[in-house]
Amino acid sequence: MTLKSEILDQPAVLSRLLRGGMGEARRIGGELGRRDFDFVFLAARGSSDNAGLYAKYLWGLHNRLPVALAAPSMFSLYQSPPVLERALVVGISQSGQSPDIVGVVQEGRRQGAPTLAVTDDPGSPLAEAADFVLFTDTGTEKSIAATKTYTAQLLAIAMISVGLQESTDRLEELHRVPELVTQALGTDGLLEQAAARYRDMQHCVVLGRGYDYATAHEWSLKLKELTYVLAAPYSSADFLHGPVAILESGFPVLAVAPLGQAHQDLLPLLKELVDRWAVRLLVVSNADQALALAEEPVRIPPDLPQWISPIVTAVPAQLFSYHLARAKGLDVEHPRGLQKVTRTW
Length: 345
What we know:
Layout (H helix, E strand, L loop, with lengths): L2 H6 L1 H24 L5 E5 L3 H16 L4 E3 L17 E7 L5 H12 L4 E5 L5 H5 L2 E4 L12 H18 L2 H7 L2 H9 L2 H10 L5 E5 L5 H15 L2 E5 L1 H5 L11 E5 L4 H17 L2 E6 L2 H6 L2 E4 L9 H19 L18
C-alpha cells in the first residue's frame, strides 16, 4: 500500500476496530473499574505521544482521570522511576517494540499498578508486558509516516473512555466515526489545490486547543516528516505567551478550530492574526466564522461531536501534508532519515 491508500483506508480500519474491539474495550473498562488507581501514567513516542495528548483531554474531561505523560528516561537512562502504586500505567505504540515504552509498563506492573497496552501487534514486547491489551488491528501500514495507525490509536482511546464510563450516548456517537472520517476525506481535492499554493512554505505554526491540541501536534509532525517544513505546534494560549512575536505579514498559520468550547477561544485569536499581522491562514473547521477568516478554508462535517473531533481533523492534516510533499517533489514513501520502527532507550 502507498501512503495515500493508507490515508484512504482509514474508514475501513476504524469500522473494523469498532466491530472487533469495542467488546474488549468494554471488558477492559469493566475490569479497570474494579482496580484501585487515581490517575493515568502514559508512555508513548512520536505520533503515539500525540495520541496521548488526546487521552489527556478525553480521559480527564469524561472520566475525571488526571493523565501524566511519562518521561521514559527516568526509567531507562536515570533508572529512578517515580512511584506508580496509585496509577494506571498505559503504553501506546504502533509496533510495541520500543524498549523505553516497554520499560515503563514493566515497571508499572512490577510496582503492582494495573497496566494497559494499545498496540497494533498483540505479540509485541509491549503487549506481553501489560495486564490488558487493546489491539488496534490496522493491517499492515507500510508507509513510514503513521496515518491509519494514528487514528486507530485515537479511536482506541475513545473506546476505552466509553468502556470505563459505559455511556450509551457516547457509544452511539463513536459508531459514527467511520462515516465522519469518510466525509473528511472529501476535502482531498481542495487540499491538493491548497498545498500547491503552499509549495514554497519553509516554516509555519499550527494552532489548536482542547481536544484538537493533539491534532496540532500531529499535523506539525506530519509536516516535518513528509515536507521538511519547520512546523511548530501551539495551543492558542501558549502562542500568545511569546511565540506570537515571530509573526509578520504572510506568515503561514495552520489552525484546527472545530465548533466547541475551544473554538470560542481560538476565533478571536485567528481574527487578530488576520487583521493585525495579515498572516496566511489555513483553517480546518466546521464554524462559518472561522472559515470566513481563512485564505484556505477546509470544511469538516457540521455535526461533529467535539470529544471525537481529533479522529476526524487528523485526516485533512494528513492529506495536506501528503499533497504538500508531492508539490515540493519529495518522496512521501521514503522520508529522509526515517524508518518505520524506531527503538529508543
